[in-house]
Amino acid sequence: MHYGWFMAMRQGDEKPKVTRELLLRVLNYAKPYWWHIAGMLVTILVSTGLSLLTPLIFRNMIDVVLPAKDTQRLIWLGLGLLFIPALSGGINVLQRRLNSTVGEGVIYDLRSSLFSRLQRMSLRFFTNTKTGELMSRLNSDVVGAQNAISNTIVNIVTNLIEAVALLVVMISLEWRLTIASILILPLFILAAQRIGTVLRDIAREGMDLNAQMNAHMNETLNIGGALLVKLFGRAREEDKRFRERAANVRDIGIKRAVIGSGFFVIFGLVSSVGTALVYGMGGYFVITDIFTVGTIVAFGSYLGQLYGALQGLVSAPVDFSTSMVSFERVFEIIDLPQDIVEKENAVELKDVRGELQFDNVTFNYKVDESILLKDVKRYGSMDNVKAVLSGGNGDASTIKRRVERTASDSAEADPASQARDVALSGISFTARPGELIALVGPSGAGKTTVTYLIPRLYDPSDGIIRIDGHNLKNVTLESLSHSIGMVTQETYLFHDTIRTNLIYAKPEATQDEIESAAQAANIHNFIVDLPEGYDTIVGERGYRLSGGEKQRIALARVILKNPRILVLDEATSSLDSESESLIQDALKRVMAGRTSIVIAHRLSTILAADLILVMDRGQIVERGTHGELLEQDGLYAQLYETQFKRERVV
Length: 650
Description:
Blueprint: H1 3-9, H2 20-28, H3 34-68, H4 71-119, H5 123-127, H6 131-173, H7 175-182, H8 185-220, H9 223-231, H10 235-287, H11 293-334, E1 356-363, H12 408-413, E2 424-431, E3 436-440, H13 447-453, E4 462-467, E5 470-471, H14 477-483, E6 484-487, H15 498-502, H16 511-520, H17 524-528, H18 547-561, E7 565-569, H19 577-591, E8 595-599, H20 603-608, E9 611-616, E10 619-624, H21 626-632, H22 635-644
Parallel strand pairs: 3-8, 3-9, 6-7, 7-8
Antiparallel strand pairs: 1-2, 1-4, 4-5, 9-10
Helix pairs in contact: 1-8, 3-4, 3-6, 3-11, 4-6, 6-7, 6-11, 7-10, 8-10, 10-11, 16-18, 18-19
């Protein structure tokens, strides 16, 4: 008995439904490897047959060779005792190779299918799904699923063949001893169930305690957490907190080890009952000359193998059910419907002029639960640790992120509140090729939502968005992506070199093209002054760079992409004046000749706009040029007085 059996039991209370359809789908993943599986079955049969020979050799040696003092035959039997383990070892290596080929192949197939599916899910899916849950599906659940094919099924077949073969041989030797040896099986099952339940509960508690410790490390040892600890001088308190959690993990580990050892003792005692019965009856049969000493020695060897095989068969249903739970979780992602779907006869955008039209567009962030993953209680998962510092755990179903929260009651209490049920309502405007459209309005008015609809990160709930007269839903996603360049307020850079982050927009870009884009974004001189130049690692999320440097790299990336339509959040409030000036200069070059939709934060951009759209509570409440809007003396005039008037226009 090993701890893996108890670990499998921790999910036993999920009671998975092992249906015929599920089994057929699972076996479908084994089809590409059926030659390997057939080879494994052959090796199992051969290995089982070899395991039956050694006790028979001992029997012959004791009952025949030694009494006859047959030296020659003794040598041959001795060589046989050397040859059988050597041959068994070679067969086991071959079986392991076949097994790992199947297992790793299934992992590869499942992960590839999952990742491909996730790449095609909309932003709505990711804003409502925890990253940790996706990682668990791609790692823990995939590994658990492949166990059903490469380990669980193989072990069931192996133990079944071995148990049947052993029982046949043992019955042929002495049927009465065989019956006596299996009489203790109910005792073994009872002991396994009772102590297995205790160990399962301890394992769960230990995994949750370990999750709390890991979550604490994850929060305090990343760059943001480490900075916060140092700024507030909390190193001593965090050290104490970690020691407490590490001590809990230590104590539960000791408890688990002690109880686990107690189980092995009980199992040994139960097994010894069967052994005592066999040797007691066998000894009596030897004394009464019913069978020989060699027979009882062989029978004792078979007995240990039989108990091991029966033990495996007892735990097999739990192992198999656990694997089925993992398969169900994997299939859940593969079967998720897509809410951003490319039509079969979608049109490829070519020679894009850049005309963009919103026609009575309405949108809300209400989530269709059918496109989301079911909440799963994962023992030992850091995602289940709700309060990392205080150590409290929370139900995963209560931890859901929303891009925009609706709170109509608050809106009624506060007329100035942007909280609402519908994110956008009746949005209509046209941006002609080469025009600059500026979006202004209070925070939460829906400006970012408008920009997210243009590259189909979301689809409108109602209304139509067109590019060059084509409904976005009727064009290919790839050509749409190539036609639109987007720079968000929160710039994301991969933990890689500056060059790799830049060519993400155009993998085949030459060095000259990269440098030209960087020069247009006013970042080239900074890059070449770095010790590693374009091969400098930017750090996680670009943390080694300043906010202005990250934004200019993001602009260079868009320039390298060379889209006809530019969508950007001109967020410069957190930048120093020098970085802001460099970015504004770069923006003029980026927007030149392109249709640009800009969430404007600077008066200079607003004055340059061909059309200003003033948004409030998800609607366009005013539109026009700077002068026209000031004359209306509405919301724009208020924003001008509070946000833009004091800005010095360069």
